[in-house]
Amino acid sequence: MGTLILRRLAAMIPVLILVSFGVFSLIHLTPGDPIDAMMSDSNDPQAKERLRHDLGLDQPIYVQYANWMGRVLQGDFGRSIRDNQPVLENVSRRIGVSLQLAAFAMAISLLVAFPVGILSATHRNSSIDGFGTTFALFGICMPNFLLALLLIYVFSVTLRWMPISGYVDPRESLADGIRSLTLPAITLGLALAAVVTRTLRSSLLETLSEDYVRTARAKGLSEYLVIRRHALKNGLIPVVTILGLQLGTLIGGAVITEFIFALPGVGRLVVDSVFSRDYPLVQGVILLIAIGFVLSNLLVDVVYGLLDPRIRYG
Amino acid sequence: MADQAITVGTPTLPAVGPRVREQRWALLRRALSARMAPFGGVVLILAVLMAVLAPLIAPYDPLKQDLSNVLLTPSAAHLLGTDNLGRDVLARVIWGTRVSLIAGFASVAVAVVVGSLLGLLAGFTGGPLDGLVMRLIDTILSFPALVLALALGAVIGAGLGGGVIALSVVYTPTFARLMRGQVLTVRTREYVEAARVIGSPGWRIVKQHVLPNVATPIVVQASLSIAFAILAEASLSFLGLGVQPPAPSWGGMINQGRGYLQQAPWIVFGPGAALFVTVLGLNFVGDAIRDALDPRIRV
């Protein structure tokens, strides 16, 4: 197990170097002068030159990269040119909101997907199964921004049960906090629930036809125990894989969800920084997201290895 | 991170032969026998017709504002109502089909071509070049897709072209990996070695032996990717990075109608329904193509 993690960590290094170079290059891929894009509302050539000098854009490109990389390695991910705040501080203040949203969405998706997926598989081709597979298809094809607006229309505009947007910290007011996060979490969780339902159904259908399930039934175990102890345990492995693969979709979905519901999370920060052409902030946030994404993928691989010994020793 | 190529079941389709025509018909019949495939086919044909015939069938000019007729409820004169500037929502939905289909098909087409070439290059040459290409692919996969598309869209600039380029970059790795995996399996087969021994040039081996083998998984993946590319383009337009207003795009219309959800929900749900049905239909078509070409990877 230890060697698996070490090997994966070592394989990450060249990729992370390329990632850093890609993120660094972003600012140089802009058509025209990035300074003009960032300071489009200013006509002060002196201020522009000062910014150019502050960002080091007047130096040769390899010097810029070396300086930038040197600062990143010391934990300095740059500063926003709008409010001069360090990127790291900005992100760490917002990451809590995004993590709450992700955890809530994950909980909703698993709470929906498990019963629906299991019932679909055990009652194959019944009306329950029909409902389950239709639900899964619906969840996969539904754009999350459309779902969000549909939920807002029904629950906030028409029924007035939920706030339209905005964020309350659940640590300050639990009830209001949960209310402010419910619709965003459903929005984000539904697509995930759909994918998990689909995967769980097909993997359970496979394990339910295995010999050991027949043996378990033959020795007189109740159907509940057959499913919980024998079928589900083995059927879970593809679900973990798919959860890992969906991580990127989850982060992308969080960007849209936070944007619509005006949640002050990292996703919202990405959109805001892109639109204010705050390139140092864009670079810093995207680099942090990529590092987080790569590390979480590593974590999924490790969990996968723990669940399935064949991968650990294979 | 994950540097193993994803291996996909690869049936060998006969590339030449007298029975090809019959087999093609059998394939089509099998594709249509999938439960929802006819629905998907109809949706796809309607969408293409709407996109091509937009200037003829749109009931109004999609850009023409009529400030005396804003936020009208759907009626016989305006089947999907009007928006906050008095523009006909149906006309804008019809014109928006163009943007969605162009973005979906163009970005996947670019990704298929670039990805396949990269995969061929990596798989055939091997060695350091292979390593470099695969690290590049890993690099692209180190970013969540939408975040990467947003960042690229931000630097390339908004507009249909920028969106297509950003999405092609996002979808390229899938095809590069498919192609490389296929090349690696085919390369060591005896018939390829035999071809090499008799002096076939590289391009001929690719054309005769590799492409027929890889065509199936690529076509299947491409047909499913188009649906998601359309969704992704709508997301970019929704966030304001795709096609710029006043030009109509489904994502952009939905974003613009967001503020009128209470008074005029049809501004959002007209293009929303078009987007949902199109993606659903394309998914059915993709599933049907997959089932017809390769029953073994049926989910």
Largest sheet descriptor of chain B: none
Structure classification of chain B: mainly alpha
What gap, in angstroms, lies between the N and C termini of chain A? 11 Å
Shape of chain A: globular
Helix vs. strand class of chain A: mainly alpha
Number of helices of chain B: 10
Beta strands of chain B, count:
0
Average pLDDT confidence of chain B is 84
Radius of gyration of chain A: 24 Å
Overall average pLDDT of chain A: 87
Q: Please count the helical segments of chain A.
A: 14
Major β-sheet profile of chain A: none
Measured by DSSP, the beta-strand proportion of chain A falls in: under 5%
Distance between the termini of chain B: 26 Å
**Roughly what percent helix of chain A?**
over 70%
Characteristic terms for this protein:
heterodimer, A: mainly alpha, globular, B: 299 residues, mainly alpha, 70% helix, elongated, disordered N terminus
Describe what you observe in this structure:
The complex is a heterodimer of chains A (314) and B (299). By secondary structure, chain A is mostly helical. In chain A, 79% of the residues lie in helices and 0% in strands. The N and C termini of chain A lie close together (11 Å). The mean pLDDT of chain A is 87. Chain B has helices at residues 20-33, 37-57, 89-125, 127-141, 145-156, 160-187, 190-197, 202-239, 250-257, 266-293. In chain B, 49% of the residues are buried. Classes of the chains: A mainly alpha (314), B mainly alpha (299).
